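The following record pairs a protein chain with its ligand, LQZAQKY5.
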Amino acid sequence: MAVTIEEALELIYKNTPNKSLKILPLEQLLGYVLCEDIVAKHNLPSYDNSAMDGYAVKVADAGKLAKVTHTIFAGDDSKDELESGFAIKIMTGAKIPFGTECIVPIEDVTESNAGIVLPENLYKNRHIRFCGEDIKSGYKLLHKGQRIHAHHITLLASQGISHVKVYKKPKVAIFASGNELKMHFESVESYQLYNTNSPTFYSRALELGCEVEFIGTAHDSLEDIHLHIKSALDCDLIVTSGGVSVGDADFTKEAFGAFGYEIFFDKIEIKPGKPTTFGKIGNTCVLNLPGNPLAAALNFELFGQSILLALSGDESKYLNAIETKMQTDYKLKKGRRTLVPGFFDGNSFAPYEKFSPGMISPLATSNSYIIIDNSVDFLTKEASVKIIPTRFYFTSKESSDLVSSN
Ligand SMILES: Nc1nc2c(c(=O)[nH]1)N[C@H]1C(S)=C(S)[C@@H](COP(=O)(O)OP(=O)(O)OC[C@H]3O[C@@H](n4cnc5c(N)ncnc54)[C@H](O)[C@@H]3O)O[C@H]1N2
Ligand code: MOO
């Protein structure tokens, strides 16, 4: 029996094993998921310092002449003490002298031979950056389950944290099956075609932060598919395409069966992509996608990406949608929930006009897709829809409803 999209996703999240961990240096952390909390060891700034190139002065000297004694630069270990009637020239980022009440920017003073004349209005603490005002020692900077982006690297570097514990990236093996398929580096006869699914999944899995192995293209024979499965079993996820329908040469699930394949679902109430199959061999997850390229790519977006998120250790492991409106009217056949690719321009969603599961061109000009509920056969222009991006990440901590209904 076919499962619903929600049931399929639930089975995916329930049956995806925990990841193992490793320690990595800061320069290699980008895209990994933290497997430990990170606590600040130092205040930031670690000393009171000047926010401007200017003069360290006393507030009571407002409107008066102050004698400039010397200059402090960023990086100087100043132990000076400021006294009334005097000013110490100071550069941005330099440690302020003891007794400083405010910093006056260079452009706000009048220079004279005897010193500088200070403006009338001086305020206590103006242009001073205080120790710990950005980060306090002991503050939890990052936590287990966060995916590391460039601005998290900023925090780690600010603390001199050089090595952290992360989850290993999901390791994905890709292969396709079909006697008609040739690789892009081979020549094709008039009755053959290039395997476009495997390079698509390979690149997309890399984009999604995985280590990827391309195992090859198998012939439609049990023996050859067995060989490809054996070569892929050391990975966290095997993604295949082709051979999952009811044709005389559709051996994929049978071939996996020889390795103790535990199938969680092998049909989904979805169009395209009905024969999409998910299961496990030991600790290795398996996603068998249909051969039709658009069906395969869209189902990889929805189910493949969910498996990868579940495997990554990322706390924000659920796909999320952006609510927008339709750019045009859209008519479709009622029946099964339908995946429709299209382009979201930041304002509205333009569905791809005419597409079928065997096409390869629709996704190249799309940046998202919508899932239209089976109860809907017409979406009017301006109707509210939920787009799921294919070109940028948008995930959330909580599972959300991804389906657009009237
Ligand atoms: N009698 C039925 N026939 C079909 C049904 C059905 O329910 N009853 N379902 C159709 C649907 S829907 C799909 S989807 C396909 C799925 O078939 P398979 O997964 O077995 O895929 P293949 O037959 O191997 O190939 C389908 C199609 O896609 C091309 N293909 C396959 N692999 C690749 C690749 N790596 N790169 C590019 N193109 C690929 C292949 O040449 C075929 O044209 O079954 C329907 N039939
Ligand atoms: O289900 Mo097929 O995947 O429609 O093309």
